[in-house]
Specification:
mainly beta; 7-stranded antiparallel β-sheet; 240 residues; 12% helix; single chain; 3 helices
């Protein structure tokens, strides 16, 4: 099937690729990087009236962007593995040049301060507002991953080595032995370069670890099974 750029004069319908992915079975922990004291917790919520563990969509998107970077594709947000920060190549963003600006979108937020006088106090206060002079909606939409089995409250106990102990020596980590399912959609005609959908699919098939900020665990997020739907309809019926 041939699709043309949606910026052309002859407008054609948008084409979407939807997918539902089920991961392999594994031990998940620290998938959101949240800590409460000396306890590392999983992100959790209700699904069909039972508590399930979640993996955030931001973790999945980060992993896909990192995959593009490691494969040598041009990305604007370059992850520094030594300092654990993203470095922008172009602060003005450029979806024509950078894969991640095109696929994931961006929003350049600028803070502006204005002074105004209130009618009640007659005092001058500074007000801050956000403006979006430069933004692009991403072609990729992605939902969080939900465990296929309810979370059973499993905890792993750890202890700091050495003879000297204190109140932080013992630590607990929540873990979940399960599979995850997540759903995504790509508006192919929104992409500046349609061919970029192919390395994105490769990334979903070979997604690296999605262990949050610390990346301690390496859960097998590569698909064990998946369903793809290629359609011109803007709504899909294959989610989860």
């Amino acid at each position: 099937m041939m699709i043309q750029n949606n910026n052309n004069d002859n407008k054609i319908p948008d084409y979407y690729l939807y997918g539902t992915v089920v991961t392999r079975y594994g031990l998940a922990s620290l998938n959101h990087g949240i800590r409460q004291g000396n306890k590392t917790i999983l992100q959790k919520g209700y699904w069909y009236d039972k508590i399930h563990s979640f993996v955030s969509s931001s973790s999945l998107r980060w992993a896909l962007r990192f995959y593009l970077q490691k494969q040598g594709y041009s990305v604007n947000r370059v992850w520094d593995e030594d300092e654990h920060i993203n470095r922008l190549t172009d602060e003005d963003f450029n979806p024509e040049e950078f894969y991640d600006d095109d696929i994931f979108g961006f929003a350049l937020l600028e803070s502006t301060e204005t002074e105004g006088e209130t009618s009640t106090t007659k005092t001058r206060k500074k007000k801050t507002k956000l403006t979006n002079p430069n933004q692009r909606m991403g072609a990729l939409g992605m939902n969080m991953a939900v465990s296929l089995t309810p979370y059973d409250g499993a905890l792993k106990l750890g202890a700091k080595s050495g003879r000297v102990k204190d109140s932080t020596s013992l630590h607990f980590t929540e873990y979940h032995a399960t599979r995850y399912q997540y759903y995504f959609g790509i508006n192919a005609t929104h992409l500046k370069d349609f061919s970029r959908i192919l390395p994105l699919i490769d990334g979903i098939m070979n997604i690296p670890k999605v262990g949050g900020s610390s990346n301690i665990f390496d859960y097998p997020f590569c698909p064990d099974s998946f369903v793809f739907q290629w359609t011109s309809h803007f709504a899909s019926y294959i989610s989860y």
